[in-house]
Amino acid sequence: MTRMFPLLARLLAICLAAPTLFAASRLKDLSIVEGGRDNQLVGYGIVVGLAGDGDSNAATTLRSVANILQRYGLTVPASDIKAKNVAAVMITADISAFMKVGSRIDVNVASMGDAKSLQGSVLLQSPLLGADGRVYAVAQGPVAIGGFSGGAGGAGGATVTRNHPTVGNITNGAIVEREITAQIVRDNVVRVLLHNPDYTTASRMADAINAKWPAAANPVDAATIAIQLPEDYRGRNVAFIADLGQIESTSDTLARIVINERTGTIVATSTVRLSQVAIAHGSLTITVTSNQGVSQPNALSNGQTAAVQSTQTAVNEGKGGFTIVNEPPTIERLAAALNALGVSTREMMAIFQTLKRSGALQAELVIN
Predict the structure, then answer these.
(1) pLDDT at 158 over 80
(2) 135-142 vs 122-129, strand pairing mode
(3) Which terminus of the chain is more exposed, N or C, with fewer CB under 10 A?
(4) Angle at CA of residue 131, ends 40 and 134, nearest 5°
(5) Which CA distances in Å does 106 have to 19, 123, 139, 178, 276?
(6) Pairing of strands 364-367, 256-260
(7) For position 21, what pLDDT does the model report?
(8) What is the pLDDT of residue 220?
(9) Burial category of 255 from C-beta neighbours within 10 Å (exposed 0-12, middle 13-18, buried 19 and up)
(10) φ, ψ for residue 346 (rounded to 5)?
(11) Does residue 162 register a pLDDT over 70?
(12) Distance between CA atoms of residues 32 and 29, nearest Å
């Protein structure tokens, strides 16, 4: 893990060396137009065609299959149905704004019961409902899981599993049956919503818009900018939104350090600042080794061979380091100091937490 700190220092140097090269972004990449949001859909369905990997005769699955058969004029008691090749699933999807009737969207399928795999399955026609309980799309088709599970019942019960065989998706698997009405212009006013609410960013965006259309934009709060439709764009809403999205502005970022302990990933923004601080670091390692030996008696001694357990303990205390972080109090100086100490990711977490408690770290610390 310690090898990542030179890399972190180099990455920070590259990102901070030329702050103006990639600072400006298009408004369409920083925000969305109010009224053009996505909506979530969810549904319950049945997949068939599993090769004995389906639900183990769950009552809900059996009743679902019986109800499907009844729709086709076949009345079969649930107790007479076997569910080895069938599984109950939940279906989820996001429907974007302006999707018209007949358009197709992708859906995700996940097993609800104890099915071992959805490999080779086909989803039967299932309605997808919105938060208001109305049907907005209908899903059906073969499920692609992007993985597999095999080897069950082999020697020693060994199995091989890649990815998650009980979760899959169907590309273009749902047809939109009801359009969600979206209104983006109200009383000749367009409101844009920032992906990352920030007062500085909202003010900069409003200034950039006003530079093109004077006095048109008004930042309502940290997340919202209200824009009056210019006279020459009245009745041409699409053209205005297209031109608005091409305006470039510089976004501001919070001082934040994010550490993912599981993967050893560290991300720090260039706005992180430190007070002048001294950091001491040392490590103590205690190693306990257990060895299994054999005591063998001499010939003709009438003794018995016996196992002998031996334990060895070693203590290694690493040499402590004391590093002073001087001006300029930036993340680059901190990265260089931590690199000099040679700390691991786990040790760096403790250092950052201590810096935060001491009040020397002027940044938000996020540990996943």
Answers:
(1) no
(2) antiparallel
(3) C
(4) 105
(5) 38, 13, 9, 16, 53
(6) parallel
(7) 45
(8) 93
(9) middle
(10) -65, -40
(11) no
(12) 8
Structure tokens, 227: 């824009």
Please identify which residue in the block is written with the tokens 């208001």: 132
Q: What is the pLDDT of residues 167-223, one digit of tens each?
A: 999 999 999 999 988 888 888 899 999 999 999 999 999 999 999 999 999 999 999
pLDDT of residue 286: 46
Q: What is the pLDDT of residue 46?
A: 92
Which residues in 278-297 are b (16+ Cβ under 10 Å) and which e?
Answer: ebebeeeeeeeeeeeeeeee
pLDDT exceeds 50 at position 34 = yes
| Amino acid letter, 187 | D
pLDDT bucket at 160, cuts 50 / 70 / 90: low
Name the phi and psi angles at 74, rounded to 5: -110, 115
Calpha distance 26→226 (Å, rounded) = 17
Let me know: does 99 contact 91? Beta carbons within 8 Å. no
- Cα–Cα dist 139/90, whole Å: 11
Cβ atoms of 128 and 139 within 8 Å: the answer is: yes
In whole angstroms, what is the distance from residue 55 CA to residue 289 CA? 47
Q: For residue 123, what pLDDT is reported?
A: 95
Q: Which amino acid is at 18?
A: A
For the stretch 264-323, pLDDT in tens is: 778 888 788 877 777 766 654 445 555 667 677 776 666 677 776 666 655 455 555 555
Residue 95's Cβ-side half-sphere holds a number of Cα atoms within 13 Å equal to: 31
Positions of CATH 3.30.1360 in the chain: 24-35+183-250
Hey, what are 207's tokens? 């200034």
Asked: is 24-35+183-250 a CATH 2.40.160 domain? The reply is: no
Tokens at residue 287, please? 């190693």
The backbone torsions φ and ψ at residue 199, rounded to the nearest 5 degrees and listed phi first, read -65, -40
Integer angstrom CA distances of residue 131 from 42, 43, 134: 9, 11, 8
Structure tokens at 18: 């030329």
User: CA 87, CA 48: separation in Å to the nearest integer?
Assistant: 7
Structure-block tokens of residue 187 = 């009383």
